Amino acid sequence: MPKYVAFLRAINVGGHVVKMDQLRKLFEAMGFTNVETFIASGNVIFDCKSKNAPSLERKIESHLEKALGYKVATFLRTTAELANIANYLPFAKSELEAEGNDLFVAFGAQIPSAEGKRRLMELRTNAHDFHCNAREVYWLRRRLREGAEYSGPALEKSVGIPITVRNSTTVKKIVAKYS
After folding, report:
1. Dihedral through CA 130, CA 132, CA 136, CA 142, nearest 10?
2. Residue 147 — pLDDT band, cuts 50, 70, 90?
3. Cα-atom radius of gyration of the chain, to the nearest Å?
4. pLDDT(130) > 90
5. Residue whose C-alpha is closest to residue 78's, from 58, 98, 52
6. What's the farthest any 2 CA atoms get from each other in the chain?
7. How far is the C-alpha of 69 from the C-alpha of 67, rounded, in Å?
8. 69 exposure class (CB count in 10 Å sphere: 0-12, 13-18, 19+)
9. Are the C-beta atoms of 74 and 6 separated by less than 8 Å?
10. Model pTM?
11. Which of 94, 124, 175, 177 could make an S-S bridge to 86, C-beta 3.0–4.6 Å?
């Protein structure tokens, strides 16, 4: 049975507060098993017999919108997919390990278009770099805190697909616990 990680957008941000107990119960009500949450930022791990991730995403989004009263974009990855994402090296190891640098992973709904990738690359500065691989956008925020600051919504607008962003440390901790 596949184990999935659901990365949910709009959970415990912007005034949308959801207790993790409530979130687990909402997932259990959909028939998912071994439901767990990982930190209070909308990361839900569960088992499900279905191997149709797009259908599961739609099911989760519909159920959460009905239960919570607002749209919750959902981005599913299997634990195997997540391990590949966590182990992928989008930048030089020295950059990834440099003190003060942070790597973020933006989980996308689909692969960004060539135009979306081009727009994203136009955002690159000395302080920020980006790399696309499959549905993920990797964002390196260097310790040089100069120039424009970016956020998930700004990246989403540039790349042209729905995304949700997590720190790579969170992704690696999920992989370590569930793979």
Report:
1. -20
2. low
3. 16
4. yes
5. 52
6. 47
7. 6
8. exposed
9. yes
10. 0.93
11. 175
